[in-house]
Amino acid sequence: MKKGLLIVLSGPSGVGKGTIRELFIHKPELNIAFSISMTTRKMRQNEINGVHYYFVSHQDFQLAIENDELLEYAEFVGNYYGTPLKEVERLRNLGYNVLLEIEVQGALQVLDKVPDALMMFVVPPSMEELRRRIESRKSESEEVINARLEKASAEMELTGNYRYVVCNDDPQLAADIISVIIKRYSEAT
Asked: What is the CATH classification number for the domain harbouring 69?
């Protein structure tokens, strides 16, 4: 059985990665399994533990780091985010194309460990639109919003580390473009 791809979908917080993902992840021809990240942040309204993230304590996350159980991890605004390695490898060995939806810091760690990962970066149509999207969540203070926008500016400078850059001006179009990229890359490897 052919080992599945490792697909990294990255971009600034609020750019719409989750919205885009939901528009293509269930296409059977892409054979995608979504990797659920672990985080120490609090659950947002409508999030479910084990579906959107594995919500854990700082102590449990630290143990996962110490035991080398994470493919990647990052800290932002006092919370940690990471990808459990064992589950990713299990799914890839079953032939699934495993999708990681992660921030830039973690994506660069993945690229170091898995140089043939399919790296895709989603950009907003403008920084003003990114601010509007983050503010519309109504889940963060102005201080956190400003920190996210400052981080987004720095992340946009790193798009050269990605094989593909896709603008999320229209989520369905972005999802269609990403679907074509995955299908073609999967067929070529």
From this structure: 3.40.50.300
